[in-house]
Amino acid sequence: MRVLTAAQADDLRQALLLAERRSGLRFGVFLGKPVGGRRHFAERLHAALGDDAVDGVIVLVDLEGRALEIVTGESARLRLSDGACRLTAMSMATAFSVGDLVGGLLYGIAALGEQATARR
After folding, report:
1. What DSSP line would sit under 31-87, residue for residue?
2. Could you report the per-residue pLDDT of 47-59, keeping only the tens digit for each?
3. CB 3.0–4.6 Å: which of 13, 27, 62, 97 could bond 67 by disulfide?
4. What kind and span of H or E run contains 18?
5. Could you tell me which CATH class the domain 6-113 is placed in?
6. CA dist., res. 42 & res. 108, Å (int)
7. What is the pLDDT of residue 10?
8. Rounded distance between C-alpha atoms, residue 67 and residue 111, angstroms
């Protein structure tokens, strides 16, 4: 099942690139059903960034389970507090709840990138 149109996927890629350029962090998004526990799966995705994991931010959206996880690396965590990630996740979840998956993702990536840039 295709979740995003080609244009939406392109918009998301552009948002990720902009957040990365501005903040210096590495961003990734996973949309789908996690294998095993949601948090554990998100942490495995984060670890898969290899050397970039320390500066990495993974946003996992479990579409079927209607849940969201944000995982940050050691360096990224210095610029993105748990509270900031929680607030961003709440805003994203609000957009998701009214059917705006893409808007929620675009907002969330931009907000995390802005917050990380401000604390750079």
Report:
1. ESPPSS-HHHHHHHHHHTTGGGGGGEEEEEEETTTTEEEEEE-HHHHHHS-HHHHHH
2. 999 999 999 999 9
3. 62
4. helix 6-23
5. alpha beta
6. 16
7. 97
8. 19
CA-CA distances (angstroms) from residue 74 to 10, 35, 53, 61, 116? Answer: 29, 24, 8, 21, 13
Does this model's pTM top 0.85? My answer is yes
Angle 101-118/82-97 helices, nearest 10 degrees? Answer: 160
Nearest to 16 by CA among 119, 102, 118, 74: 102
Here the tokens at position 54 are 């320390």
Helix (H, G, I), strand (E, B) or coil at 120: coil
Q: What is the pLDDT of residues 90-104, one digit of tens each?
A: 999 999 999 999 999
57-95 core/surface letters (b: 16 or more CB in 10 A; e: else): bbbbbbeeeeebbbbbbebbeebbeeebbeebbeebeeb
The share of the chain scoring above pLDDT 70, in percent, equals: 98
